[in-house]
Write a structure and sequence with these properties.
Strand order of the largest sheet of chain A: 3-5-1-12-9-10-11
Largest interface: A-B, 32 and 29 residues
Strand content of chain B: 15-25%
Strand content of chain A: 15-25%
Radius of gyration of chain B: 19 Å
Number of domains of chain B: 3
Largest sheet of chain B: 5 strands, antiparallel
Oligomer: heterodimer
Radius of gyration of chain A: 26 Å
Number of domains of chain A: 3
Structural class of chain B: alpha+beta
CATH topology of the largest domain in chain A: Aldehyde Oxidoreductase, domain 4
CATH architecture of the largest domain in chain B: 2-Layer Sandwich
Strand order of the largest sheet of chain B: 4-5-10-6-7
Structural class of chain A: alpha+beta
Shape of chain A: globular
Number of helices of chain B: 11
Number of strands of chain B: 14
Order of helices and strands of chain B: EHEHEEEHHHHHHEEEEEEEEEHHH
Helix content of chain A: 25-40%
CATH class of the largest domain in chain A: Alpha Beta
Helix content of chain B: 25-40%
Distance between the termini of chain A: 64 Å
CATH architecture of the largest domain in chain A: 2-Layer Sandwich
Shape of chain B: globular
Number of helices of chain A: 20
CATH topology of the largest domain in chain B: Uridine Diphospho-n-acetylenolpyruvylglucosamine Reductase, domain 3
Chain lengths: ~750, ~280
């Protein structure tokens, strides 16, 4: 096997650094029109009329409404409830109604100002509590998009018999993905009638599926190409289907290429966010602190349409217990519909919401039992052989305890806890200091039988030029897909990385490897790349007896192996291990093939004058099986925990009348480099037998961990348990003001 | 981006005199100094078909001069220049500090003091220091030159008392008669960079030999439609000793001069509580 190289870490990196990479708005676009979207201004209503100002030169424009959609008016995903363009009724503000295209970009925005929609307003439902009450029905039959129940043992009996029962309620808000590049798509119809869309996206085959439905075209006539993509974080999992549909609709009508690129405000106000949630815990424990029952209620706000909400809820429910063993568990999870822009995929996908509650709840339990939260975790954490709430037995690669002990040691958790208690006694110090810990798990790959249904495919091709091409639909969205697959294929084949190239994600060229989501790219698709590489290696060895060691030798052998074909191709398809079983009806079985584990110690201080929180240091350990590239894993962890610090401390999406009031990066604050504390990352290797070279997923796990540790550290510092994110200085002040025990100021 | 440069007209004067002349002929033009606010409007398409008076190349207005009475900071001096200027740092450290926390490095490199004032944001970070240093704003128009007390330049959020075709040429900072006993600048933006202030404070305090307040100057931004001096608290403390009782009273009187509101960045209650804590902490020393 080849030794790990320390040279070029990211093959696509130099072009991005030099400004040569072409994002959607950089693509050549001769003869194209710019498209823009007219959106609803009311959260719910019937469209009475759409009027176009007679004075405006509409002959310069192309416009489209729902009536122009040749196929089904929907953005096909899990359900088909979301229209591509509102027709007759709007169910949330910022819902697309009319599309306009013009040769000049600024004119298309002017044109939007000359279209007027008259509504008959209907009473909206704007909060998840109101939706659950269902006094105003906004989605048949009961405003519920999805319910999930998980049952293990006898929760009521166990709660009745528990020494202590601790209750708590936790809340988390919307969160914006805030990828650097806004949503954008180009579309054109080629001479043979093929619809070609190219743009910023995570999942080319999702876009294809949606376009096939909306345009009533056969699959072969819809080609989807990923342009260089400036970040996704889940935000480009489903919404690109909408933008692509709009661009295609205008292109079809105009008979010319059309490009739609959102600006930041439109992107933030209209596209998906992380689901807000309310989570309630009722936990029974023995006097020593051993869990006997977890009764958990999860409520999430899906927004106006289903998007990916059912699966977000599923992942949220499956992570709701935290990584702990408990003999009796009941989870009741509910996703409701409100008249707000639909929420969707975002790194973590439901888990950060429920894990925030599960982890912070230990602070309450610790208070009730007068025991240290760290000791309580040690008593209950899963280990090899533990059984989860769904009855899954964790056979291997369970690093929960390792990651916790690693951060506790490196973050000097116990020493600092004592040191800060002394620091906080002095009124002369300008701050209170605190330390908090959390430990989380994250299921790698699709939930339940998802991977079996996806049946992902990848191919490897040895070309006549001796080049090895990896063909997958997994996208590079900044996280390192290209580097990971290049390294994996090269290592498995035993050839230099320079011989390997990754084909662009183009449905015309690559097989469907499933979407680039769910921490599955390395573990699932990477596993297929590894197997395909093994088979290709065998084919080469069969023919030559050994792997060619020079390029010239490789070219010679490649010509021989290819014969008359342009390339020798091997294809692999995912086969579900028969021993991994899942019952979608009862929610029993193996919810995920395996879990990653992560723990964080957060060391912070709270300013006594301004109540601002400054994170002094963040120490994180992750068990991602075997790290295929430790530096890529570190990068994922650093990015993920920083995004989670924003979730915990800054990001405050402010909604009124179902519309985000702060859709600008000046008012919706995400962390800057100066807000990012020193980040200490440790990788704990607990290889997973089915992962490629032992790897598990890594992408989402870091997003799950820090928020509850931040809240615990603020609790440690101030004595205030803030159970709602974000922990803004305004909220700390409010908590102090309403807590008479803390009126020492 | 909704800005369409081809629809805009850009006037490019080569000297201050030409700038004044051109502005006189095109009073509808939007003056561009560093452009850090202009670009936001440009991006939103709000400047399409408008005329822009590009002042940015006028080097005469970007200098910082020393006179016998003080420093004269050209309207086009960037925050970075002010931040780094040894004379500003020595005599007007609160202004240098403010310049170092406006936006972030890129904004400081482009943004100018004159542009900051003309934009008249209620949360302008340079304003509380300019208010306590009792700056004088030099303006020029085809009708001639004018000098205005800094606080009189503002009429409301985003509104100034500048007359049509009147440009800010410089900001004069009179030297303080003697070193203050205590001084403070503090910006509360919650994010460490690229933050708009929730509250921003500057204070100067002179105590006499007996510990009595000779003079207090304290100004707050983002707490009212425009930057405010705490005249009531300042007057109350003049001649007083700083005892727990007088400090508490001054902190209470803060509410006489500011009335912060709830908005998308913060709450009125938070702004008030933190501003009071800043003033109290400053007075207690």
């Amino acid at each position: 096997m080849k030794k790990k190289r320390s040279g070029v870490l990211r093959p696509e990196g130099p072009d991005k650094l030099r400004g040569l990479a072409r994002y959607v708005d950089d693509l050549p676009f001769p003869g194209g029109l710019h498209g823009a979207t007219l959106r609803s201004t009311v959260p719910r209503g019937r469209i009475r009329a759409i009027r176009f100002d007679p004075d405006f030169p509409w002959d310069e424009c192309v416009t489209a409404t729902a009536a122009d959609i040749p196929g089904q008016n929907c953005v096909a995903l899990i359900e088909e409830d979301q229209p591509l363009l509102a027709d007759g009724e709007v169910r949330h503000a910022m819902e697309p109604i009319v599309l306009v295209a013009h040769a000049e970009r600024h004119r298309v925005y002017e044109a939007l100002g000359h279209i007027h929609v008259e509504y008959e307003p209907l009473e909206p439902v704007l909060s998840m509590e109101d939706a659950l009450e269902a006094k105003v029905p906004v989605r048949a039959p009961d405003n519920v998009i999805k319910r999930i129940s998980i049952d293990k043992g006898d929760v009521d009996g166990a709660l009745a018999g528990a020494d202590v029962v601790v209750e708590g309620e936790y809340r988390v808000p919307h969160q914006e993905q805030a990828y650097i590049e806004n949503q954008g798509m180009t579309a054109r119809f080629e001479e043979d009638g093929t619809l070609l869309v190219e743009g910023s996206l995570q999942c080319p085959y999702y876009v294809q599926k949606a376009l096939v439905r909306a345009f009533a075209l056969p699959k072969e006539k819809v080609r989807v190409v990923q342009a260089t993509t400036g970040g996704g974080f889940g935000g480009k999992e489903e919404y690109p289907s909408m933008v692509a549909g709009h661009a295609a609709l205008l292109a079809r009508k105009a008979g010319r290429p059309v490009k739609i690129v959102y600006d930041r405000t439109e992107d933030m106000v209209a596209t998906t966010k992380r689901h807000p949630a309310r989570v309630r815990h009722r936990t029974g424990l023995t006097r020593e602190g051993k869990l006997v029952a977890q009764d958990i209620d999860v409520l999430m706000d899906g927004g106006a349409y289903a998007t990916l909400s059912p699966v977000v809820l599923s992942r949220g429910a499956l992570h709701a217990t935290g990584p702990y063993e408990c003999p009796n568990v009941r989870v009741r999870a509910c996703m409701v519909a409100t008249n707000t822009p639909p929420n969707g995929a975002f790194r973590g996908f439901g888990a950060p919401q429920t894990l925030f509650a599960a982890e912070l709840h230990w602070e309450r339990i610790a208070g009730a039992l007068k025991k240290d939260a760290l000791r309580l975790r040690r008593l209950n954490l899963v280990r090899e052989g533990s059984e989860t709430a769904t009855g899954q037995v964790l056979h291997e690669s369970v690093g929960a305890r390792d990651v916790l002990e690693a951060v506790v040691r490196r973050g000097r958790y116990s020493e600092k806890k004592r040191e800060y208690a002394r620091w906080n006694r002095s009124r002369r110090h300008p701050s209170w200091r605190g330390i908090g810990v959390s430990v989380c798990h994250h299921g790698a790959g699709f939930t339940g039988s998802g991977e079996a249904f996806l049946a992902s495919r990848v191919a490897l091709a040895l070309t006549r030029k001796g080049e090895i091409r990896v063909l997958t639909s997994s996208t590079e969205i900044g996280q390192g897909t290209i580097a990971a697959f290049t390294g994996l294929a090269a290592r498995t084949l035993g050839v230099p990385e320079e011989w390997v190239t990754i084909e662009r994600a183009d449905t015309g060229l690559v097989p469907d490897s499933g979407p680039t989501v769910a921490s599955r790219t390395c573990m699932i698709v990477g596993g297929l790349v590894e197997r395909a590489a093994q088979r290709l290696r065998e084919r080469i060895l069969e023919s030559t007896g050994r792997m060619p060691s020079t390029r010239a030798e490789m070219v010679r052998e490649a010509r021989r192996l290819c014969g008359r074909e342009p390339a020798l191709r091997v294809e692999e398809q995912y086969t579900h291990p028969p021993e991994i079983r899942w019952d979608e009806e009862t929610y029993r079985g193996d919810a995920y093939p395996v879990y990653g584990y992560g723990a964080t110690v957060v060391d912070l201080e709270v300013d006594r004058t301004t109540f601002e929180v400054r994170v002094r240091r963040l120490t994180t350990a992750v068990d991602v099986g075997r790290a295929l590239s430790p530096r890529l894993v570190e990068g994922q962890v650093m990015g993920g925990v920083t995004q989670a610090l924003g979730y915990a401390l800054l990001e405050n999406a402010d909604y009124h009348d179902g519309v985000m009031q702060n859709p600008q990066l000046t008012n919706y604050l995400i962390p800057t480099a100066l807000d990012t504390p020193p980040l200490d990352v440790m990788i704990v290797q607990r290889p997973y037998s089915r992962g490629p070279l032992g790897a598990k997923g890594v992408g989402e796990l870091p997003m799950d961990i820090p928020a509850p540790a931040v809240a615990a550290a603020v609790h440690d510092a101030t004595g205030l348990l803030l159970t709602e994110l974000p922990i803004l200085p305004e909220r700390i002040l409010e908590a102090f003001s309403s807590d008479p025990a803390h009126r020492q100021r | 981006m909704r800005g369409a440069p081809e629809t805009m007209r850009v006037l490019r004067p080569r000297s201050p005199a030409e700038a004044v002349r051109l502005y006189g002929r095109h009073p509808e033009a939007l003056p561009l100094a560093g452009g850090t606010d202009v670009m936001v409007s440009w991006n939103a398409g709000l400047l399409n078909r408008r005329t822009v008076l590009d002042l940015s190349p006028l080097r005469e207005w970007s200098r910082i001069r020393r006179t016998r009475a003080g420093l004269v900071v050209g309207a086009l001096a960037t925050h970075a220049r002010i931040r780094d200027d040894a004379r500003v740092r020595a005599a007007f450290p609160l202004l240098a500090e403010a310049a170092s926390v406006i936006g972030a490095a890129a904004i400081q490199n482009r943004g100018t003091l004159g542009g900051n004032i003309a934009n008249a944001s209620p949360a302008g970070d340079s304003f509380p220091p300019l208010a306590v240093y009792e700056a004088v704003v030099h303006t020029i128009s085809p009708d001639g030159e004018r000098r205005s007390r800094f606080l009189n330049v503002f009429e409301g959020p985003k509104a100034t008392a500048l007359r049509p075709a009147e440009l800010i040429a410089a900001v004069e900072l009179p030297f303080l008669p003697k070193r203050p006993t205590r001084q403070i600048f503090r910006k509360i933006g919650t994010r460490a960079a690229q933050a708009l202030s929730k509250t921003v404070a500057a204070g100067l305090l002179w105590l006499d030999g007996k510990g009595r307040v000779e003079e207090l100057r304290f100004a707050l931004g983002a707490m009212a439609p425009t930057v405010r001096r705490l005249r009531t608290a300042e007057a109350f403390l003049a001649g007083q000793r700083l005892t727990p009782a007088t400090v508490d009273r001054a902190v209470e009187l803060l509410g006489e001069d500011v009335a912060p509101i709830d908005d998308v960045r913060s709450t009125g209650a938070y702004r008030l509580a933190v501003s009071r804590a800043l003033l109290g902490g400053f007075l207690r020393g």
